[in-house]
Design a protein that fits this description.
Distance between the termini: 44 Å
Number of domains: 1
Helix content: 25-40%
Shape: globular
CATH class: Alpha Beta
Order of helices and strands: EEHEEHEHEHEHH
CATH topology: Rossmann fold
Structural class: alpha/beta
Strand content: 15-25%
Strand order of the largest sheet: 1-3-4-2-5-6-7
Number of helices: 6
Number of strands: 7
Largest sheet: 7 strands, mixed
Radius of gyration: 18 Å
CATH architecture: 3-Layer(aba) Sandwich
Length: about 210
Amino acid sequence: MNYNNVVFESSYGRMDQLPESDLAELVFAGRSNVGKSSLINKFFNRKNLARVSAVPGKTQTINFFRLENLRFADLPGYGYAKVAKDNKAKWSDLIGGYFAAGRRIELVFQLIDMRHPPTKDDLQMIDFLIENEFPFVIVLTKQDKLSQKQQKERLAALQKEIPYADQIQMIPFSAETGYGVPELRAIVEEIAQLDLETEDAPEEDTQAEEE
């Protein structure tokens, strides 16, 4: 895949504005200031594809990007304490509505700051994904801020801090160095290939069974 060919499609702040889910979708989710925009820019090798806000919690929309036969959804960051309650409720409704809309969600990239234990909001999000059977991987951002010893310690601690951690794929990532980009792209390319194979597969002839 040529990641430079990604295009920004549009942003939506209300559920009734969301476009039809006509492509396989991959989702970026995480708390405010976890490095989601930086990850997106590094992943696609584009400096300003996703805007990096200096004010945590400012983004209040779902942003859609398209690359070949895939659509990517960048969800608003959650969990910023200084955001007004009405804005928090709006974001919660928007994110919850997105997941409840029956869209073609193939995978969620759930971002967590590798330097710290998951927040209460992170754990709630992980529980939500597990309970609703959304496939997901955890992307551990800001890997470059830790020494190798600290990384090993945090990876070991996460096995106790995250429910069912031994069953969840976790990928350390750095937007500064690109560490983890090949692993993330391999996942995306596998999904894209499976989606193409599904579209190209001939429909089963069920007429004989019906007769």
